[in-house]
Specification:
Layout (H helix, E strand, L loop, with lengths): L4 E2 L12 E8 L3 E6 L10 E8 L3 E7 L9 E7 L10 E6 L4 E6 L7 E6 L8 E6 L5 E6 L3 E4 L6 E3 L2 E7 L2 H10 L5 E5 L4 E6 L10 E3 L3 E8 L4 E2 L5
Protein name: Farnesoic acid O-methyl transferase domain-containing protein
InterPro entries: Methyltransf_FA
């Protein structure tokens, strides 16, 4: 753990987060550590995800403590030849809800699952660390999870903000697209039609979120920083 870069050092609030997205450019042997300790205590439980081990395998490891005995370790090994690229950023995600740790590729959490490890002794992840092996250059582009709030808890509310993009897709893809866009402050989604409309304030000064009642639609606002800061929430 002493050789890792901790995500927490950038003053990001990771409380409540159960997934982690990133883009990675490396030839092989990239590691993500999900630790129960927020002070780099190696004796605390942790998950270690090793991507492109010797460029042939990936591993998801659970370790109960710092003692290397069979009773405190559990892991799964997945064949993933050429999962990394030395010259191109590739997208990955990791999620660990309820101790079911999954590794996947792409931008959408839950899609393109590479492998998983179910740990019955699951724990709260308090810090995230990344590194590549010695003599391996790795470049990481970290994405911090945002979440979306249903304003007023109404399923027939549609915002009248500026639509910057519209598409037919799943709600997960809609939320992901908004989360990856700096211009997007929220979205309208129609579950029956799988219609997504990404919304923006543009350059206008907005003191309230204009909206109206329309059956089938629901408005979601982007929220950050440990669920304490939401854009355009009205009640």
């Amino acid at each position: 753990m002493n050789y890792t870069t901790g995500i927490n050092r950038y003053n990001l609030d990771l409380s409540g987060i159960t997934s982690f997205g990133f883009e990675l450019k490396a030839c092989h042997d990239a590691h993500v550590l999900l630790s129960n300790s927020d002070i780099r205590n190696s004796s605390n439980p942790l998950y270690e995800i090793i991507i492109g081990y010797y460029n042939y395998f990936s591993l998801i490891v659970y370790r109960a403590d710092a003692v290397r005995d069979d009773g405190s370790w559990n892991f799964t090994e997945i064949e993933t030849e050429n999962i990394l690229n030395c010259n191109v950023y590739l997208p990955f995600w990791i999620c660990w809800a309820d101790g079911d740790v999954k590794l996947g590729t792409g931008f959408v959490v839950g899609e393109n699952v590479v492998g998983n490890l179910t740990n019955t002794h699951h724990f709260e992840v308090r810090s995230i660390h990344v590194l590549t092996d010695r003599d391996v250059l790795g470049e990481w582009d970290i994405q911090v999870e945002v979440y979306f709030k249903i304003n007023c808890s109404m399923d027939i509310t549609k915002s009248e903000l500026v639509v910057v993009d519209g598409m037919k897709c799943s709600e997960m893809m809609c939320a992901t697209s908004c989360g990856l866009s700096k211009a997007c402050m929220g979205y309208n989604f129609n579950n029956a039609m799988n219609r997504c409309k990404l919304l923006s304030f543009e350059s206008n000064v907005v003191t309230d979120v204009p909206h109206h009642i329309e059956a089938g639609w629901r408005f979601y606002s982007k929220c950050y920083n440990g669920k304490t800061a939401c854009l355009g929430c009205y009640f």
